Protein: Sulfatase-like hydrolase/transferase
Amino acid sequence: MPRLTLPQPSAWIPITAIGLSLGYTIAALTSLPWWTLFLFASAWVWLGARFRLGQPRFRRYRKVWPWSLLPLCLWGLYVYLADSFGKLDLGAVFFHLQAGMSDHGGSGRMVAAALYTLCMLGVLIAFTWLTRNDWRWRRVEPLLAVILIVSNPLILGLGQRSAVVVTDDGGWLERRYVPPRVQAQDDPPNLVLLYLESIERTYGAPAFGDAYADLKALGERGVVFEGIRQIANTGWTMAGMIASQCGTPLMPAGLLHDRQFEPLSAVVPGVNCLGDVLSEQGYRLSYFGGASAEFAGKGLFYNGHGFQHVYGLKELQPQLDDKTYVNDWGLYDDTLYEFTLNEIERLEAESDSPWGVVNLSITGHAPNGYPARRCLERQGEWDGEDILYSVKCSAWLARNFVERLDAKGLLDNTVVAIVSDHLTMRVPVWDTLETLQRENTFILLGDSLEPQRISRNASTLDIFSTLLDALGYPAKNHQAGLGVSLLNDTTSTLLERHGEEAINRRLHEESALQQRLWDGLSPHQDKTPPRPKPAEQVLENPNDSADEINLGL
Structure:
């Protein structure tokens, strides 16, 4: 048995660098305590000493470039994204690349990205040194490169997405899509739609104390929906808003099998969404968000789907009394709610036609949130890291806003919807969240809505049809997009009928619904006849079950 000999000083640096990066990767992807990275690093260094990596006895210098350099870079990118956001959705990466990432608020992540890049350079140098100096490492390194490629979730995800070009059935979801059809009504109610950034219903668990208490109090006077899951392609802000307003996942344009890669000029122009439906009914619609409306195509989406006014950072910051009272992303929510309240007062006073206002908050944004000044005055000092402090702030600001509207008489004949745009990404309490059954927030308040709790196996796709129902515009068979109204229990949701895993699998195979979403953007569109949009769902595939046909699913 060979004696354990420590590597020469020149070999210690590359071996230790590889060990630390390996330990960090394992700890980050498994949510183990950060100190465990040193255990894995020590184990790697022990193996290096055991097999005498880089020692003079095995040195046969050859100036070669490792096969693993590119696979290592891809792994470094994946670890950075997973460590930053938790569960990585490749759709979010591709969509933001095409929709635009200007005016983003992730300055902290930019610093982290720079540090990750420096660390990756160190790992690449270490691999290159070992490959050039140890002939045994040089022999096994090509096999290691293959292992790194096939094990990388990024590569796996790209393979799944590109597989839609050869899938047997790329139109399974498209056949279940129902264009929204509603009829006009007398004296329609107004709508206030509040998106609370990352404030998922899971925060109401006892493990998080009273962080969610104000939303629980609001829920006591309205309809609380339990069981709202997050399926693939709905797990970031734009995707969450499109899911809840259009009834479809956001399947990005410009992936491997698409026909165009130009910057977006419109967002999901091929489907009618909540704004389209309400504007056709005479609603005056406004959107308010503290962040830039140019980021991730928010302005394109709202301007292209029936909203007359779209206000983001650039439109609102000049109106601030203190123009320095902004955060990395934009306005704090206390000032954003003030602007929103003023807009509602204006809309209410201008005419008798109904109005709708959408507000997107920022307080709960991962990783630590952006609590407003009013919360600091109410809750005391913030340590800069406690996400539950920010959750409590977001919940209180939303409740305070609704109560102020009520006190001013602005909730008469008005439906208020409180929704989390998506489940939170990686935050300091991530490990606890992951042990729980995670659900999105969805609360409805209105004069005609009897307080109750509705528990369904549903997703944010079902919010669109539910909102139409609450506003008195029930779609045919209570179906709109891929969702059904949760206020009506006669029709099963997609998740109730097929389960979350099956729907997510179908999303990775779907191409027809993606083409519908982006209908009109392809430069080759004029070469093909327009695809007729059915008045209602047609399930022509023989694999579709008969009971689904009978139920309209």
Remarks:
- The chain has two domains: 9-165, 182-522.
